[in-house]
């Protein structure tokens, strides 16, 4: 994720406004000032906030009893999940919901004249956040889809079998081995065994000689 370190820095300092500025939008705190004040209490260790907005979600059975009609929720996109917070008006009670990224198929957004809508596709159902500030909905959808793709690519790399590198040049094989090991896809013993086989092969000696002879 581009600017990941900045997102992490602003999350650590609870500077939600700077996170929004990083995304080119203003902080949408309409109806969610209480939620913003307690947001950090509901973040997990090393969880990084990418984007925030507020929107209307249908009242569920677990919603605050003193809220009337549809509730305005704080909607937070993080490195681990979508997090939703709804602070009661007259008590300190806070409703929370979260959706882990592995359960999300895709995220889309639509913009109206004044407000926008975020649609989170969970495969079996669609979660809709309505009446969000229109400038924030596409930001959240774009960031979410980009991050979901990065997570999917990392997972694919981690599960790719070592045999898949058998057709690449030997130096490339070493780099791929290092990457698989760093991702946790290989044990230390598997990594050392595969690396030793490459370094002691005749083909590697030939390729190493070619490389050295190409140096000025």
TrEMBL record:
It comes from Psychrobacter piechaudii. InterPro entries: YokE-like_PH. It comes from the Bacteria. Residues 43-145 form the YokE-like PH domain. This is YokE-like PH domain-containing protein. Pfam families: bPH_3 (PF14470).
